[in-house]
């Protein structure tokens, strides 16, 4: 037997020269079992990595059964067989080709305790998962251990953690027992989902344009049901090129807009042949929204939505950006569906209680005290889950964590306005839960008064963060029961004292920002006031020597000059006074709630007004000294003169809008980080 050239095999595999690798095997049959990388991968391992389906099939078909099984059972340094890798990359053809030769490969575990079917679910490879699931049904071992790794995580844990919610829905239907399973840390699938606020609409931050596209996007909220999918090894081919699909979809959409009730009547005979849905599925469908529009309006609305997207793309909004918003909406819908399934199928003990015993794959138990799902959801701001759990069992509001904090206290402590408003609307919660204290003696008002290092509110700057902090404290205080009395915690502090002590640093930082901003703006206001005063005392064209009245009185440009110069002088002086009043403020905590932001907002408004008025008065006065033949040519110069000021105002618009909204809104808006997919 010739000696195996490991280096040559490695080079053949890395360069994709699998024909040469096959020739090397013909010369030396032991070449397939040689470890050719530091990770102890064989040629077949690398072929699976590189997607060489035809090579793998040809090799497995060309060797005898004994050698084939030996090669398929070989593991690399991580304990992965070729079936593990095929499931991980989602190659259905390879999975079927390998698993059909020896179904025990599906039960094989790597050194992390992961089976191939677990890896397929972990990486969201739906087709590969369904293929292995179908082959697994033919195996004698029907234990759920095949879908659980050594740390107790099941495929349901993994798909929810990786946010493959479409696959998670199918797993719930295939393996309903996994709904109540917990890992070694004591976490159930519902608890993991509760820790993912960005997967729900209530905790996702979107701007106006994003929100508009999100609401106008029509996505399918039905998940394809596949109860028993087996791969038959046949390749799926398209009768036409792949890029024809978009055109076909577009023309189908056009056709669907013309379909009315009479056209649908022809399909009644076919509908009678369809088997009736179960009562449970019909009950779920009855819960959906009922629209008062004709059925064919849905297609028309969908067509208009596509046209709107087309126009947005023309005006510079990228198709990828629109697609990202659509994918986000799909994720939100599917996450809510998974949540509903988990809550409806979960047992009361695993759904509401905070005591869990984690079970490992080896049978060992490890007791942990983990927060109940409603507590995690309240802390993370998942309003949908809190509402669903309370609708299912209102007693869940009595759950507390290790620090004796209920869902209400956690929502207040972590600044979750959506959850707090939901709970505050329930009279029972307002009368009972708001009276409770944690193990440190802190009431709901104490927790609202406590400030931590992170800045939760959806506004920039320390000053406006301080404004929202005070508004949040005031909102919680006004929500307390009528006969609530202020109490001390175990450190002997009232809520007001705690607010002052914990917000000293933020108030100091906000005061510095306001001081610098007011100093800069007051300097500009003083300059504008000086120019406006000089301009207002100068009369274009001069006065009449006999009467003293302006010579140009009555002309439209003169009237514009007179009004604009007066407005510029008054508004600049007003702005200067407002900014000086901010500089002389004491910067008390309560001043940030209304007084200081109002002065800053009015000061910026009058400053912008004064600058614009000065420019208008300049243009109106300059208009008289321009010759008649140049008057039309000077208009572009006036526009160019106003551009720097317009740009400055445009840059300050976000701050201006934040201040305006802060004055209007009573309930603060929380900031949530966006995770792109």
UniProtKB/TrEMBL annotation:
The keyword Lyase does not apply. It is found in: Cell membrane. It comes from Phaseolus coccineus (Scarlet runner bean). Coiled coil: none annotated. The chain crosses the membrane at residues 303-322, 521-540, 560-580, 600-625, 637-664. One of its GO terms (cellular component) is plasma membrane. It is a peripheral membrane protein. Residues 262-287 are annotated as: Disordered. This is PGG domain-containing protein. Residues 512-624 form the PGG domain.
